[in-house]
Amino acid sequence: MEIAVLLSGGVDSAVAVHQLCAEGYKPSLFYIRIGNNESGYSDCSMEEDLEMCHAVARRYGLPLEVVDLHQEYWDRVVTYAIEKVRCGLTPNPDVMCNRLIKFGCFEERVGHLFDKTATGHYATTLEREGKIWLGTAVDPVKDQTDFLAQIDSLQVSKLLFPVGKLMKSEVREIALNMKLPNARRRDSQGICFLGRINYNDFIRHFLGEKEGAVVEKETGKILGSHRGYWFHTIGQRKGLGLGGGPWFVVDKDIDSNVVYVSHGYDTPLQYGTRVCLHDFHFITDDPWLGETFPVDVCFKIRHTPEFIRGKLMRAGESSVYVLESEAPLQGIAPGQFGVIYDRDARICFGSGEIRF
Ligand SMILES: Nc1ncnc2c1ncn2[C@@H]1O[C@H](COP(=O)(O)OP(=O)(O)OP(=O)(O)O)[C@@H](O)[C@H]1O
């Protein structure tokens, strides 16, 4: 079997290489370059990543190739992110990067020459009724299936996750025992360029600044000013510049460029139990065909270790689903993905974009 490994320079994908070699495979290694760009942003950690990748390749005597997907990333992921922010939404570039770049453009360019593509993601795959499903990782704290919740059935059936059945501590231990060059390296912030730069600078570069009011939601009182609703996200606490906090962003009016806040940890305006998921995407298949709604599910509305319990309903015949959470949810941010799992949080079925 011919395997391509996506190698990042981090410890997880290095151990993925080790695991495959220990099973007798001779995978080919690929580093995806998404780097400096015309706008003057540079990413210094990239050179270090690449050095680590070369060291891992040398250690196992495997070929390493750099695949430049910089333009594709900017055309697809950055454009998506900016458009969402412009509409007042909170995008998730990591989710889109996996779908469009790591398993999209890479597959078209290189991956199609291989039987399987392996990564260091904390996730698993499992077979049920003759189909391959995306399974959660053994280490619940490291589980990354929420970042993979927009991939499709072809992608999932081709993927290998050699570290998905290991705890992070075991991964580190393997790396230390094998004296891998990056054994002690800190965890990366993801491939996404957006995770590595100052987010506000990046947004400012594309959308500029426009002063607007910060208003207390309950009273309508103007408390201060902001430099553009696009710098603020629902659920945000830090960076509001208001005294006497805590203050939380609870709403935004993009037409009038107003950011609404509410005071205190227990302000009810911060919480909700109902989440609307639009354009719902099933990774492998619709598991609820013929079932009576609501169905019991687990879900996440952001990257947290906890899976939350709730009930899912379909809104008519459309691809809109409504989630009713058992526990109050803090800061439901439209634009983020609501990721749905089975009731035992073993299988990730898919995701939809949160909207009001
Ligand atoms: N620049 C890159 N080139 C190739 N593959 C990458 C790159 N960045 C990330 N990946 C792949 O995606 C996986 C998940 O990346 P991410 O940065 O989200 O997580 P991570 O758990 O910190 O992984 P790692 O420790 O391997 O960096 C990596 O393990 C690797 O397989």
TrEMBL record:
- State the compartments where it is located: Cytoplasm
Q: Where is the tRNA-specific 2-thiouridylase MnmA-like C-terminal domain?
A: 277-354
Enumerate the residues binding ATP. Answer: 6-13, 32, 120
Q: Which reaction does it catalyse?
A: S-sulfanyl-L-cysteinyl-[protein] + uridine(34) in tRNA + AH2 + ATP = 2-thiouridine(34) in tRNA + L-cysteinyl-[protein] + A + AMP + diphosphate + H(+)
Name the domain of life: Bacteria
Q: Which residues cross the membrane?
A: none
Recorded hits in Pfam families, A to Z, give: tRNA_Me_trans, tRNA_Me_trans_C, tRNA_Me_trans_M
A cellular component annotation (GO) from this entry: cytoplasm
Q: Where is this region: Interaction with target base in tRNA?
A: 92-94
The positions annotated as site (Interaction with tRNA) read 121, 336
Query: What is the top EC class of this enzyme, as a single word?
Result: transferase
Residues of the active site are 97 (nucleophile), 192 (cysteine persulfide intermediate)
> GO molecular function, one example?
ATP binding
Residue ranges, annotated region (Interaction with tRNA): 142-144
EC number(s) reported in the record:
2.8.1.13
Name the keywords, alphabetized.
Answer: ATP-binding, Cytoplasm, Disulfide bond, Nucleotide-binding, RNA-binding, Transferase, tRNA processing, tRNA-binding
HAMAP family (UniProt xref): tRNA_thiouridyl_MnmA
Q: What does this protein do?
A: Catalyzes the 2-thiolation of uridine at the wobble position (U34) of tRNA, leading to the formation of s(2)U34.
Name of the protein this chain belongs to: tRNA-specific 2-thiouridylase MnmA
Q: Which species?
A: Candidatus Phocaeicola excrementipullorum
